Amino acid sequence: MRLLRKSGILVALSLISCLAAAYQSPSGKKLEKAIGVSNADIEQSAGAATVESESHQAGDKVTTYSKTPAKTMVLPRTQHYVFAHRMLPTLFFEEPAMFIATFEKGGNKFLHFLWNLLGDEASELAAESLDYQIKRLENNTTIALITLPPPQAMTEAYFVAAVFRPQGNRFITLEYSFNFIEGSPITVLGEWTTTSHLNLGDGPEPTLEAFFEKVVNLIK
To answer: Which residues contact 147 (CB under 8 A, 6 or more apart)?
Structure first.
């Protein structure tokens, strides 16, 4: 807890405590209330809440063909989704300066602390692959680039970028998606504001360097 000693982090710490207490609820309802997301929300975000299908009948045999590739049936993992799409952007927009300062002083410890709030030893998802970099640009812009465990389902993120700057803060994501026509994975750029999630279109190749370059171009 040495990272959380400054008084300015108390707001974030209060939220973290709320999240921790909520996650311990057997029903999970308090968790939904605390982070504003439920399993239904996650299913809808992944485009897997409904699956269109066609049925063809030949004699007494009925064959059903799904219009949705099997890959899209894999729901995003709750820990992965909530971490990238709810916890990190909420903490960042609540106290952006302190969020960046905390990463500058000990980002890996802070990342693992937050990650472990959303999982347990049995469900922990490759936490060792969590990583971060701090990039400083001109015009007093600082970017915290965060690498997540490799995504396996639509909407799970490869990377997120917390952009702290005088002109306005931004939280940008590079997400796993799927090209239905070609039957192959693609990336999508997303952005969280304080109120909603935006789709920014096709993303670059899923490397940190390519993502950072795209983020820099977006915020120019």
So the answer is: 129, 130, 131, 132, 158, 159, 208
Q: Would the pTM of this model clear 0.70, i.e. be above it?
A: yes
- 118's CB contacts (< 8 A; 6+ apart) are 19, 23, 78, 79, 82, 83, 87
pLDDT, tens digit, 9 for 90 and up, residues 77-122: 899 999 999 999 999 999 999 999 999 998 889 998 999 888 765 4
Beta bridge partners of 147: 131, 159
H-type alpha helices, the chain: 10-23, 29-35, 39-45, 78-82, 88-94, 96-117, 208-218
Among candidates 76, 75, 70, which has minimal Cα distance to 180?
A: 70
DSSP labels for 54-93?
A: EEEEETTEEEEEESS-GGGGSPPPHHHHHIIIIIHHHHHH
Which of 82, 90, 215 is closest to 156 using CA atoms?
82
At residue 210, what is the residue type? A
